[in-house]
């Protein structure tokens, strides 16, 4: 599962939206206080950090009473009612002890009949059903040597279930009908499923646990115009007398029930292959011609990962399907991954972005998560940390070390941001809700921890250990100890220390480093400053590099104490001491350096993060001539992100200092090979306090750029010139559907559009999707705040509908924020109270409850 579906931040979001509702994403959980002694003071209680691990109840893996061997589903649909009509035939046996009852997960069904099957003979069974669990009296006692088959005739009604979800998976009703009645001409009719964590039991009865495995058959009866997709192999399609067809999909290798999937819609199927296996891409017909450019690296990824792991891609085919209104970024269903619609790009959009990261993520899950599956949600990083790390591996292989390091720095920042309010062990059996496991610990921290493990044992041992882990535990469920033992078997080293501090303990090292040179030696002092009441004193093998007279020397040290001093041999006063020279450590490092040392670091360190850290620390001294000289070098760096950071720094300059860079910035705006940099250069020029008239031709050129991102920057820059023809120029883009362009226009129109842009805002808001809709609603809220005549019943009704009914919780939040702009009106205040009262999502309720409405 990939949870990065809020990453669409267009250039248009440069204009901030504010309203009466300010939401801080980190204000969800109440501070933990822990056990409090009778005489403990209020001050002492308050001293407990907000991020301290919470003492939740223990969540073990599910006890296996029965073993689910096979599931056969015969399924048809009532599109009008949004119901699934199913007959499930389950083959089971007692796991160990004799059993005369069977308990199945079955959420929100109408149960019509339950039978014990003997060939074609059916014996009706007695059962009780509470809407969540189906308890069946088997009529006799079975032993672990006995297989039995139960058949359940049922109707699934997912829309009648109470909503739940997580940051990664915004809803958990399992089965989704998209535009079921065909009333929306701009949206296809689709049906798709999303099973993680335990939502597949909302559309078929099962033992909905990750430590269960089954083979399966699906018979899907649909209108012949629809294409179907499921796990495993497509066997046949049969025409029925009533004009429908039945597609038969068969999965011969066992997998966990939550990985079962189906997708139904009018898809274009673009065929590819890896070795002799089918690799197919299911997209909307409008994207048929670009499907191979979107997903085309998939066969190369399959070969790369198969070679790296020494375990070939294990399933009978690999398909990737894009659906509308998906409730996550993507999902790694066995042999058939599902993706959000944002993945679909046209030729021009492909110039600015690719989705290789999310494609690699779901593909790697086919080994880590599907082939070998976590036994419990407490062990979720055994799925997600590996999928996260695959993005690094692929970027390193395909795009180079800098792109991989850039990605990993983003992961570190995601985790450290979350760590401000939450610190838990990676493997954690104590959680309030299993959905809480889908966080930046399991993903971002987990991937970084695997990278440290790779750096410690070395590449050969790392991949040999992964091979052993996958080979020993294929088609089974695991816990973290089995990963540790695989590494120990390969390396011969007891690695409990590593797994204990990184997988089983909360927090991260917070280091303060200093160095002094005297008497021909370098004294390096390291303090571990993290709160050891909640985090360990870490054992940290790291490398330190020194430069003396231009000569680079590497030193290996191992930190084992809270305060430790190392004496390193050097021949002269070092020009630079670079701690953790591989930049692999998960944690924070405070190592003060002089301006001269930072300049040397930028010029001589090869690691992306080391160069970036030096550059960022020098930004406060932009008025210094030697820093401006360094910026000239940075603007020519081989890596685009370094060039972009240097450009952003130039935004601080004014007058003559800025003009010294003018020619270079203009050249970058026109010719840089990276669209992000061209766009950044345009925005730098537009931000300088100089006569903007002279840049008009450049901005006009930018608006014609092949890149949407650059064109959007050109729109914002041209709008800032105040030219008389701004309205005319911008109106030429109003039919564009690309989100970068739409959001750029929305930013300008929010404050300058006036009443005539009402229809445009309404149309664009109705057509926007996902992350773009989130930001569009922010601009709409700002527009309504300054255009009171736009506060029409139509606009309010649209916002109310989005705030109450949209499938994505963050869109409901943005619509709620937009309505808050109008909360001085009594009827709007009442509407907000109604929305708050009817909201079921706990994340939104925690935010809404902080508001005085």
Q: CATH class of the domain at 66-282, please?
A: Mainly Beta
Secondary structure tally: strands: 29
Beta-strand proportion: 15-25%
Supply Rg.
29 Å
Q: Which CATH-level-2 architecture of the domain at 66-282?
A: Sandwich
Order of strands in the sheet with the most strands? 5-4-8-2-1-11-14-13
| Annotation field: number of helices | 27
**Poorly predicted sequence stretches spanning 5 or more consecutive residues:** 4-45
N-C termini distance: 36 Å
Q: Choose one word for the global shape.
A: globular
CATH topology of the domain at 66-282: Immunoglobulin-like
CATH superfamily of the domain at 66-282: tricorn interacting facor f3 domain
The largest sheet, given as strand count, sense and whether it forms a barrel, is: 8 strands, mixed
**Average of per-residue pLDDT values:** 92
Helix content: 25-40%
What structural category arises from helix and sheet content? Answer: alpha+beta
Protein name: Aminopeptidase N
EC number: 3.4.11.2
Keywords: Aminopeptidase, Hydrolase, Metal-binding, Metalloprotease, Protease, Zinc
Domain Aminopeptidase N-like N-terminal: 70-259
């Amino acid at each position: 599962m990939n949870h990065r579906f809020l990453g669409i931040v267009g250039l248009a979001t440069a204009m901030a939206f504010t309203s009466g509702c300010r939401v801080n994403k980190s204000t969800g959980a109440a501070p933990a206080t822990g056990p409090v002694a009778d005489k403990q003071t209020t001050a002492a209680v308050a001293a407990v950090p907000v991020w301290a691990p919470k003492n939740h109840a223990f969540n073990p893996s599910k006890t296996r009473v029965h073993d689910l061997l096979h599931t056969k589903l015969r399924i048809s649909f009532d599109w009008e009612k949004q119901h699934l009509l199913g007959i499930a035939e389950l083959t089971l046996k007692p796991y160990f002890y004799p059993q005369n009852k069977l308990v199945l997960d079955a959420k929100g069904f109408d149960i019509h009949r339950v039978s014990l099957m003997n060939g074609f003979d059916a014996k009706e069974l007695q059962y009780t059903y509470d809407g969540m669990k189906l308890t069946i009296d088997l009529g006799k006692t079975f032993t672990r040597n006995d297989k039995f088959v139960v058949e359940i005739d049922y109707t699934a009604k997912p829309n009648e279930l109470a909503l739940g979800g997580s940051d990664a998976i915004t809803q958990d009703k399992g089965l989704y009908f998209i535009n079921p009645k065909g009333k929306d001409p701009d949206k296809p009719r689709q049906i798709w499923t999303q099973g993680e964590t335990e939502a597949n039991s909302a559309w078929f009865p099962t033992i909905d646990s990750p430590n269960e495995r089954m083979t399966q058959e699906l018979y899907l009866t649909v209108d012949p115009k629809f294409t179907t997709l499921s796990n495993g192999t497509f066997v046949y399609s049969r025409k029925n007398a009533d004009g429908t067809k039945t597609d038969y999909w068969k999965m011969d290798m066992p997998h966990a029930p939550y990985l079962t999937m189906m997708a139904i819609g009018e898809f274009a199927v673009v065929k590819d292959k890896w070795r002799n296996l089918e690799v197919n891409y299911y997209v909307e017909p409008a994207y048929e011609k670009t499907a191979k450019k979107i997903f085309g690296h998939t066969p190369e990824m399959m070969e790369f990962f198969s070679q790296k792991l020494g375990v070939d891609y294990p399933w009978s085919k690999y398909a990737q399907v894009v659906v509308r209104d998906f409730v996550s970024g993507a999902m790694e269903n066995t042999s058939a991954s599902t993706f959000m619609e944002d993945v679909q790009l046209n030729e021009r959009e492909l110039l600015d972005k690719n989705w290789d990261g999310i494609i690699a993520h779901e593909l790697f899950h086919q080994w880590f998560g599907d082939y070998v599956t976590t036994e419990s949600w407490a062990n979720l990083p055994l799925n997600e940390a590996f999928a996260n790390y695959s993005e690094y591996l692929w970027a390193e292989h395909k795009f180079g070390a800098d792109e991989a390091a850039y990605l990993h720095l983003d992961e570190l920042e995601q985790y450290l941001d979350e760590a401000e309010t939450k610190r838990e062990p990676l493997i954690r059996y104590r959680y309030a809700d299993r959905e809480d496991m889908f966080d930046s610990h399991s993903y971002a921290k987990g991937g970084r921890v695997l990278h440290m493990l790779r750096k410690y044992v070395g590449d050969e041992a790392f991949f040999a250990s992964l091979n052993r882990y996958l080979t020993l535990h294929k088609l089974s469920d695991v816990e973290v100890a089995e990963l540790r033992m695989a590494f120990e078997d390969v390396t011969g080293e007891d690695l409990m220390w590593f797994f204990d501090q990184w997988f089983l303990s909360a927090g991260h090292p917070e280091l303060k480093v200093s160095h002094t040179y005297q008497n021909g030696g370098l004294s390096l002092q390291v303090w571990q400053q993290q709160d050891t009441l909640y985090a360990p004193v870490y054992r940290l093998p790291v490398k330190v590099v020194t430069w003396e007279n231009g000569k680079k020397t590497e030193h290996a040290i191992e930190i084992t104490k809270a305060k430790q001093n190392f004496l390193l041999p050097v021949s002269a006063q070092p020009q630079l001491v670079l701690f953790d020279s591989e930049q692999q450590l998960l944690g924070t490092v405070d190592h003060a350096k002089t301006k001269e040392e930072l300049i040397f670091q930028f010029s001589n360190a090869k690691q992306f993060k080391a160069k970036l850290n030096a550059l960022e620390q020098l930004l406060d001294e932009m008025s210094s001539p030697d820093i401006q000289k360094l910026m000239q070098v940075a603007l020519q760096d081989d890596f685009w992100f370094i060039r972009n950071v240097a450009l952003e720094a130039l935004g601080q300059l004014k007058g003559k200092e800025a003009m010294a860079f003018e020619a270079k910035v203009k050249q970058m705006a026109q010719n840089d090979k990276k669209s992000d940099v061209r766009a950044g250069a345009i925005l730098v020029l537009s931000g300088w306090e100089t006569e903007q008239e002279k840049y008009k031709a450049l901005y006009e050129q930018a608006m014609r750029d092949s890149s949407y991102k650059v064109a959007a920057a050109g729109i914002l820059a041209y709008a800032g010139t105040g030219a008389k023809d701004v309205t005319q120029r911008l109106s030429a883009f109003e039919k564009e559907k690309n989100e970068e362009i739409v959001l750029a226009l929305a930013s300008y129109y929010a404050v300058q559009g006036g009443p005539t842009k009402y229809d445009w805002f309404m149309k664009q808001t109705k057509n926007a999707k996902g992350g773009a809709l989130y930001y569009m609603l922010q601009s709409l809220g700002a527009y309504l705040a300054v255009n009171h005549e736009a506060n029409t019943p139509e606009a309010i009704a649209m916002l109310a509908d989005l705030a109450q009914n949209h499938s994505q919780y963050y869109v409901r939040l943005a619509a709620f924020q937009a309505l808050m702009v109008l909360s001085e009106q009594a009827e709007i205040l009442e509407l907000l109270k109604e929305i708050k009262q009817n909201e079921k999502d706990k994340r939104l309720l925690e935010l809404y409850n902080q508001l005085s409405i």
